[in-house]
Write a sequence for this structure.
């Protein structure tokens, strides 16, 4: 490594006019080599000794600013390093120092990677050294196996199965597990098939009163959004209070890149604690651990830039080919996608590897890359398949690290929901749900439309990394409502929510018919609407459709059952959601194509989730064969109980065999 760094420094000195490592009158090749070796050695030592302290101090700045500032700080370290060269032979301008430091870090990273690839023992020794640093002294390594839960956000069961059984497989590492060491099991979500509800239940055992990704709470006038830090913190508080348990990861676990902590004390990039103020906020420690190695910063920066270029090229190709359905992918979306598919992935994977080397009992990490790309390119698109291939490499890295951990590890892959493909509601019918509701209420066009946003989930994570403040409640409400007498219309994939702020409690069917007699006929008569849930004062919860209705309390159907196209478990899921305190006055689910499973998202997405219809409600568990899963788990709460049972089985102390008695000894 030192030799390569020295040679790099010497070559750059020969190529760059503003950089020299020799005396003004010239030096012999031997003297130049010695000077280069001294400069490279000093730079390497400063990077190893000073850099971690600098990064820890810079946690006061936003995480992404930290990553960008790496190049300038690296250049400063090089300026200091060149002062150690004999007789002041090292001279360089500050701007050139930044370039040289970046090239040297990239070269060092490439060299170390090449050496590790060619020498597994070298890679193992490096991981062993890292493990030794993280291990507590005088504590024997645990013998019980640990468990790593990797959530591949948004990846449905059928898409994963097809990716693993393709020839060649899209995910070769995971494909090698299927049918040998691991078993693939589907499970089904509730009506709210989105990360907030699913992950809250998986980590904390309850998704009660999470009707959608975003919803309006009348008593506070607040719009709750699952991935907003303050909302995530409140949802976690409610779940802990409701279950009386701290979470799946409470006993020595770690939570990485999730919306919720799961009760873990080891946290990185967790949204529910991101609102806590402090210079060393625990949600940001993952950035420190990752950026403390300047080579990581250089590698991630190159990958980030490549991902931005890749997205621009892919969106341009889709536009030139006039692919349908298609959504706009301009503005800041390429940067948001690169953050989700590169920065979040790299930091989370590095944190998981660190947890394994430290011997932590349970680790849960969310990798959001596939979900982000599939929203805009489609869940079965070529773009999404390429993301799966890169995620497979991340899984392989984690599996390789398990060989050097102080305890054996079981790796469980799972998803929180799937995605359903289809043209957006606005693209298919030329109107938005909000405009349709206003027309049914006789309000006419409001003259404004909700801002379109790409990367809804990753965008908030990027804002948090930049230490940007949350969007204010007033700004959120200004986009979805007018005066208090007008309805608030929100969207969660292909699930829409309509609330009337000036009606206390939940509005009944009878109240709405008196107030807006055309609203329900407008909604149920639209071809893009599958069904509408409303509460009747006399008949209880009703599901209304174009050709009939269903009483959920009795199961009685008049005309055509509006839930029939949504599968045999739809009525159960809708009835459960009806009992939530914050279920909207009207819950509107888009229609579904019974043959293709296509739905119409009320958001700006061609791959969507959040309601019923298609494969969005069918995520997966890929678990070691020795872990029993039983029948298809029904709901994320059942998945939580299953994962908890797996962890509890490991924690049980082994029962010692009884000592042989005298009769047994005589028999021998």
């Amino acid at each position: 490594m030192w030799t390569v760094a020295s040679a790099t420094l010497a070559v750059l000195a020969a190529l760059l006019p503003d950089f020299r490592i020799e005396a003004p009158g010239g030096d012999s090749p031997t003297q130049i080599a010695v000077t280069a070796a001294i400069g490279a050695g000093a730079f390497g030592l400063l990077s190893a000794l000073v850099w971690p302290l600098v990064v820890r101090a810079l946690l006061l700045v936003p995480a992404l600013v930290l990553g960008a500032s790496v190049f300038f700080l690296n250049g400063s370290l090089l300026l200091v390093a060149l002062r150690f060269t004999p007789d002041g032979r090292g001279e360089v301008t500050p701007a050139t120092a930044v370039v040289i430091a970046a090239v040297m870090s990239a070269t060092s990273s490439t060299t170390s990677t090449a050496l590790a690839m060619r020498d597994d023992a070298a890679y193992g020794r490096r991981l062993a050294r890292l493990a030794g640093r993280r291990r507590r002294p005088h504590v024997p390594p645990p013998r019980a196996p640990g468990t790593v839960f990797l959530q591949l956000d948004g990846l449905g069961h059928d898409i994963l199965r097809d990716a693993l059984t393709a020839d060649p497989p899209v995910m070769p590492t995971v494909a090698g597990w299927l049918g040998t060491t691991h078993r693939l099991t589907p499970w089904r979500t509730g009506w709210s098939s989105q990360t907030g509800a699913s992950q809250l239940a998986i980590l904390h055992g309850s998704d009660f009163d999470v009707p959608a990704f975003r919803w309006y709470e009348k008593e506070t006038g607040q719009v709750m959004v699952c991935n907003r830090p303050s909302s995530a913190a409140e949802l976690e508080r409610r779940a802990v209070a409701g279950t009386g348990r701290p979470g799946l990861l409470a006993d020595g676990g770690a939570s990485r890149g999730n919306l919720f902590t799961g009760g873990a004390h080891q946290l990185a990039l967790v949204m529910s604690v991101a609102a806590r103020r402090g210079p060393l906020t625990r949600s940001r420690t993952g950035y420190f651990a990752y950026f403390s190695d300047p080579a990581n910063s250089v590698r991630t920066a190159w990958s980030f830039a490549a991902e931005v270029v890749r997205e621009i090229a892919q969106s341009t190709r889709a536009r030139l080919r006039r692919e349908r359905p298609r959504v706009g992918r301009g503005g800041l979306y390429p940067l948001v996608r690169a953050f989700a598919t590169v920065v979040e992935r790299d930091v989370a994977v590095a944190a998981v590897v660190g947890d394994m080397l430290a011997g932590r009992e349970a680790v849960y990490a969310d990798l959001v890359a596939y979900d982000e790309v599939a929203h805009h390119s489609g869940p079965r698109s070529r773009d999404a398949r390429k993301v799966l291939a890169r995620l497979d490499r991340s899984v392989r890295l984690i599996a390789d690290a398990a060989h050097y951990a102080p305890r054996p590890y079981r790796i469980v892959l799972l998803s929180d929901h799937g995605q359903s493909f289809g043209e957006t509601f606005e693209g298919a019918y030329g109107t938005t749900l909000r405009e349709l509701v206003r027309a049914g209420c006789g309000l006419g066009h409001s003259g404004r439309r909700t801002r379109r946003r790409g990367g809804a989930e990753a965008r908030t994570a990027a804002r948090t990394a930049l230490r940007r403040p949350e969007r204010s409640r007033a700004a959120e409400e200004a986009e979805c409502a007018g005066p208090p007498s007008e309805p608030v219309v929100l969207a969660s994939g292909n699930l829409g929510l309509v609330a009337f702020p000036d009606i206390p409690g939940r509005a009944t069917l009878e109240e709405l018919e008196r107030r807006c007699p055309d609203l329900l006929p407008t909604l149920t008569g639209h071809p893009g609407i599958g069904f509408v849930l409303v509460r009747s004062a006399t008949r209880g919860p009703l599901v209304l459709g174009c050709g009939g209705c269903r009483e959920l309390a009795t199961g009685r159907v008049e005309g055509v059952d509006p839930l029939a196209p949504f599968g045999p478990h739809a009525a159960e899921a809708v009835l459960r959601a009806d009992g939530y305190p914050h279920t909207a006055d009207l819950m509107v689910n888009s229609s579904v194509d019974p043959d293709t499973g296509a739905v119409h998202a009320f958001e700006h997405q061609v791959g969507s989730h959040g309601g019923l219809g298609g494969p969005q409600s069918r995520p997966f568990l890929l678990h070691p064969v020795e872990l029993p899963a039983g029948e298809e788990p029904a709901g994320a709460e059942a998945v939580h109980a299953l994962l908890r049972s797996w962890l509890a089985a490991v924690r049980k102390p082994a029962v010692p065999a009884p000592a042989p008695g005298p009769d047994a000894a005589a028999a021998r």
Q: What stands out?
A: Residues 294-320 form the longest helix (27 residues). The radius of gyration is 28 Å. The CA atoms of residues 161 and 432 lie 34 Å apart. The longest strand covers residues 529-536.
